[in-house]
Amino acid sequence: MKKTYKTIAGGFLAVTMLAACSSDPEETSSDSSATEGSESSSEGGDAVLAMGSDAVDLDPHGSNDTSSSHIRTNIYERLVMHDENTELQPHLAEEFEQIDDLTWEFKLVEGVTFHNGEEFTADDVKATLERAVAPETANPRVFLYEMIEDVEVVDDYTVHITTEYPFAPLPAHLAHDGGGMMSAVAIEEEENGERNLDIDPIGTGPFELDNWDQGNEVVLSNYADYWGGSVPLDSATYSVVSEQLTRIGMLETNEAHIADDVDPTNAGTLETMDGVSLSTVESLRLDYLGMNNEVEPFDNVDVRRAITKAIDKSTIIEGIFQGYGTEAVGPVNPLVNGYSDGIEPLEYDLEEAQSIMDEAGYEDGFSASLWYEEGDQVSNQLAVVIQDQLSEINIDVDLQTVEWGSLLDATANGEHDMVLLGWTTVTADADYALYSVFHSDMHGGSGNRTFYTNEDVNELLEEGRRSTDEDERMDIYKEAQQIIIDEATMVPTVHDDFRVGVSDTIEGFIHYPNGVFDLREARIVGDGVESGY
Question: pTM score, two decimals?
Answer without folding.
Answer: 0.82
